[in-house]
Q: What sequence folds into this?
């Protein structure tokens, strides 16, 4: 079967799984809602632009035309008002944010495992998650130290990118970035940042509970603004990585062989590192540190679809989205809501150990 056909079949199947998981998840909670009602409420929330009108506004003494877009709602299914509010205002933002974060973490996990040629690699291997944690904890402990209204998510995002850039600079010499040096630099920086986080925890005072909760990874208090920003950034970066699927396949042969086959190895490595770091930073900034998604999902999908990154990237991304939505549903379904990072670790670690005992761990 051709690569395109296999990719299409697997992607459609996983999209169906994701849609079902989202519908079921949106109906689970203190107020149970049927999947059909969830679907109707979701469609009722769809708005499409129908008209554009122009008014006038004065900016610095200059009168400028200001467009106003008029929206219409093409669907008007009969749905109880409370159910409509619960689905579109409370549950869907959280569920869709979880889908985007799972999509991002699984994508970055595939790239890191291919980049390091190691199925045990995950998105945080070069310290991106630790950098985000330092930025977030610093903001929670001393928000007055952050200018320009950066905010919690902005602080986490900047911390993640600065860490990734710092690890890259440490590991790069004479324009070359050896993979082994990059890995060791990432481990060293993670250890150092862990000490920084511990120090800040000792001085967190009343914000200790909030800091600890963020570090566990969570999706509550998600807003449509969070979903919009993440959904605009992550898919764009995903398609950049997808365009490098063939290059990732060739890099598995080794850098010398890849160079002989026409791959600009160092340039490709820089792009993969930069884009995967951005993807991870975007996910961690809105959700905190959620482990195991970027490790388990790519590994399981590699067992199912094989190591070809042209198939593995889209299938892992969709599977990661479905996995995180499902685990977050479990996290909020008990008598006391848990951070989703606890659930992914509690489910992921035993399952991964089971795979290690029953399946051959394939090198990538």
A:
């Amino acid at each position: 079967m051709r690569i395109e056909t296999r990719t299409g079949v697997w992607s459609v199947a996983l999209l169906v799984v994701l849609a079902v998981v989202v519908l079921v998840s949106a109906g689970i909670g203190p107020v149970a809602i049927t999947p059909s009602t969830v679907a109707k409420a979701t469609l009722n929330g769809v708005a499409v632009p129908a008209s554009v009108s122009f008014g006038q506004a004065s900016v610095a003494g200059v009168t400028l035309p200001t467009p106003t877009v008029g929206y219409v709602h093409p669907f008007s299914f009969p749905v109880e008002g409370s159910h409509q509010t619960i689905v579109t205002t409370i549950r869907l933002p959280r569920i869709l944010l979880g889908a985007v974060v799972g999509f991002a973490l699984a994508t970055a996990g595939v790239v890191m495992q291919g980049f390091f040629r190691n199925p045990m690699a995950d998105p945080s291997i070069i310290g991106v998650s630790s950098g985000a944690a330092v930025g977030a904890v610093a903001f929670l402990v001393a928000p007055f130290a952050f200018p320009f209204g950066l905010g919690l998510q902005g602080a986490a995002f900047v911390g993640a990118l600065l860490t990734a850039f710092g690890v890259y600079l440490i590991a790069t010499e004479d324009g070359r970035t050896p993979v082994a040096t990059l890995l060791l630099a990432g481990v060293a920086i993670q250890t150092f940042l862990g000490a920084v986080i511990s120090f800040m925890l000792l001085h967190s005072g009343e914000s200790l509970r909030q800091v600890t909760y963020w570090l566990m990874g969570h999706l509550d208090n998600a807003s449509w603004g969070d979903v919009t920003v993440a959904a605009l950034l992550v898919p764009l970066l995903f398609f950049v990585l997808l365009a490098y699927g063939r290059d990732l396949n060739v890099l598995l042969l080794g850098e010398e062989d890849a160079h002989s086959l026409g791959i600009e190895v160092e340039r490709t490595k820089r792009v993969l590192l930069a884009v995967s770091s951005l993807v991870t930073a975007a996910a961690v900034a809105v959700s905190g540190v959620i482990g195991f998604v970027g490790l388990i999902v790519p590994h399981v999908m590699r067992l199912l679809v094989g190591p070809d990154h042209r198939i593995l990237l889209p299938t892992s991304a969709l599977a990661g989205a479905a996995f995180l939505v499902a685990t977050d549903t479990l996290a909020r379904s008990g008598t006391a809501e848990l951070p989703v990072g606890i659930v992914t670790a509690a489910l992921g670690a035993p399952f991964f150990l089971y795979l290690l005992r029953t399946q051959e761990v394939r090198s990538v």
